[in-house]
Amino acid sequence: MKELKAPENVKIKEFDIEVRPYLLSQDIMDIGESMLKFDNKVEQDLCLMVGVLERCTDISKETMDKTPLDLFINSGLWTKVRDTVVGVGDIYAYVEHKENFYKTMAREIPAF
């Protein structure tokens, strides 16, 4: 078998950033668990975006903190990053599975 290697980082010249084009399993679980802390889908989506940007780009924490989240979306940066990173859909699947599990448990176990 040929030696397995992770894909190399991708340079998005338009925004002068480097992107790791994949999520680690731990990234998927960590971001998913963070999303589950919010009931609102908009807040969950923002949480997902921030989690992916923090883990998969070379955008500094300082820049992340001082840039309005809407600007990452409206500039097109988030779309470029989201389309580059494999595994973003897996985070949604993780969250949906957990939410469905919690709903099932709430129905099946009577409250005391």
Helical coverage, percent range: 55-70%
Element-by-element helix/strand order: EEHHHHHH
Report the total helices. 6
How much of the residues is beta strand, in percent?
5-15%
**Distance N to C terminus:** 56 Å
Average pLDDT taken over every residue: 93
Low-pLDDT residue intervals, each spanning 5 or more residues:
none
Q: How would you sum up the global shape?
A: flat
Quaternary assembly: single chain
Structural class: mainly alpha
Q: Largest sheet, described in full?
A: 2 strands, antiparallel
Strand order of the largest sheet: 1-2
Radius of gyration: 17 Å
Count of β-strands: 2
Gist of the model:
This protein is mostly helical. The protein has helices spanning 25-35, 41-56, 61-66, 69-74, 77-84, 88-108, and strands at 10-12, 17-19.
Key words describing this protein structure:
112 residues, mainly alpha, 2 strands, 61% helix, flat
How does this structure look, described?
The protein is mainly alpha-helical and 112 residues long. Helices cover 61% and strands 5% of the residues. The chain has 6 helices and 2 strands. Helix 1 (25-35) runs antiparallel to helix 2 (41-56). The chain is flat and about 55 Å long. 21% of the residues are buried. The mean pLDDT is 93.
